[in-house]
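Retry 2 of 3 after timeout on previous attempt. Resubmitting structure tokens to design endpoint.
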């Protein structure tokens, strides 16, 4: 557990805007010192990528990736691979922002660093996040940090305001295979003119709810667009095991930030206090628990 003081990191107006529209953009939210540390950590993995020819469990690279011309798509679970990312995500500005937005302690779910390399770095098709890792409610949110300036040539993230309270789309193809994107015929019913493109200077933060329709275009600039993402949920929100990425989100997943852990949850309007988490040491027998045996 990490304890954070809920300082004045968020105005009432910004908090209301997030809950009403499902997203938020805070230019320059992350200071220069943090940015320097994050960039240095990111650069270490770019250098590491020169030693591989194909994606592995840590780095996802484009097919054209080479040692001479690295083309990274993603650093997977940076929190688990570098102390700078761990401190930033669990103790730094995004953790404090998540606590403020969700009104109390939060659970960390996962993190990733999407590079979107220069000169055609791949698009992220329109989708919603919650289908990838369902939870017991819809509080999960993702906080993104621009490590460099992002302009309209770089494929900034686009969000559809208000879509977090609307329809949840099926992200499977017609043949039943997982596509991870909204089908073209479904997109035809979405007014793309209402999409808001989240450009911003280095250090800007974006927030989007897990049900928000969002995506991004290819990077047409000569500069990579590194976007560090970290997902949190309310304390009483739990990932549903056996679906999507839940269970493979890294060893730090589930860490509680901003207060003590509890086993409280609500299902269909009924609250319950669940048993402790026995996943690491194994469950006791009901006999031992009831007889208070050690």
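Retry 2 succeeded. Sequence:
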């Amino acid at each position: 557990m990490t304890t954070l003081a809920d300082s004045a990191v968020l105005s009432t107006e910004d908090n209301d805007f997030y809950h009403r529209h499902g997203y938020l953009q805070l230019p320059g939210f992350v200071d220069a010192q943090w940015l320097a540390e994050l960039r240095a950590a990111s650069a270490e993995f770019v250098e590491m990528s020169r030693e591989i020819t194909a994606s592995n469990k840590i780095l996802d690279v484009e097919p054209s990736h080479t040692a001479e011309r690295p083309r990274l798509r993603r650093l997977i679970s940076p929190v688990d691979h570098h102390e700078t990312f761990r401190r930033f995500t669990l103790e730094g500005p995004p953790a404090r922002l998540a606590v403020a937005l969700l009104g109390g302690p939060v659970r960390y779910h996962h993190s990733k660093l999407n590079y979107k390399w220069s000169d055609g770095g791949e698009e992220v098709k329109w989708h919603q996040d919650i289908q990838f890792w369902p939870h017991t409610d819809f509080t999960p949110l993702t906080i993104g940090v621009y490590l460099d300036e992002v302009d309209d040539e770089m494929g900034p993230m686009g969000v559809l305001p208000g879509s977090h309270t609307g329809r949840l789309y099926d992200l499977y193809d017609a043949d039943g295979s997982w596509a991870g994107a909204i089908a073209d015929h479904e997109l035809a019913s979405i007014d793309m003119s209402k999409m808001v493109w989240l450009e911003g200077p280095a250090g800007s933060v974006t927030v989007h709810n897990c049900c928000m329709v969002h995506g991004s275009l290819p990077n047409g600039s000569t500069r990579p667009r590194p976007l560090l993402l970290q997902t949190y949920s309310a304390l009483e929100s739990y990932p549903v095991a056996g679906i999507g990425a839940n269970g493979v989100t890294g060893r730090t997943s589930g860490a509680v930030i901003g207060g003590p852990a509890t086993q409280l949850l609500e299902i269909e309007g009924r609250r319950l206090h669940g048993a402790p988490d026995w996943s690491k040491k194994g469950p006791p027998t009901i006999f031992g628990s009831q007889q208070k045996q050690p």
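Attempt log closed. The chain has one domain: 12-264.
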